[in-house]
Write a structure and sequence with these properties.
Length: 122
């Protein structure tokens, strides 16, 4: 039997390639499943049951290293002043950002309006 050790849904291509390379480097056999024609199946990397522990440890180590690298890159970008800000996101996608802000305001209104009406009517 095989066990799913790495889900590929919403994973960047470079990370998926790196996980494949880590497994191949350590000679762990694996196979992949795709999301299928309709995108409802589970895309992932599967390994034989006897290699699950080793594969999981290798993937966890890789992901920790990747997270540390990304965190240090972000800190360096922040120190240089080149990290993306909220304003940059707004300039890049103004309609989507305004839609999200308006939706949040609507939710806030919908949640608070019954209490405000209760306070006013008292």
């Amino acid at each position: 039997m095989s066990t799913l050790v790495f889900k590929l849904r919403y994973v960047p291509d470079d990370e998926a390639e790196a996980v494949r390379a880590v497994l191949a480097t350590h000679r762990i056999e694996f196979y992949e499943t795709t999301a299928g024609n309709w995108g409802i199946a589970m895309p992932g990397i599967w390994v034989p049951d006897e290699d699950v522990q080793q594969a999981r440890k290798l993937i966890d180590d890789y992901q920790q290293t990747r997270a540390d690298e990304r965190r240090s890159e972000h800190e360096a970008d922040t120190a240089r002043g080149t990290a993306p800000l909220w304003y940059d996101q707004f300039v890049k996608r103004p309609l989507a950002t305004m839609g999200i802000v308006l939706f949040c305001l609507f939710l806030l209104y919908a949640l608070l309006s019954p209490f405000l009406r209760l306070a006013v009517s008292s």
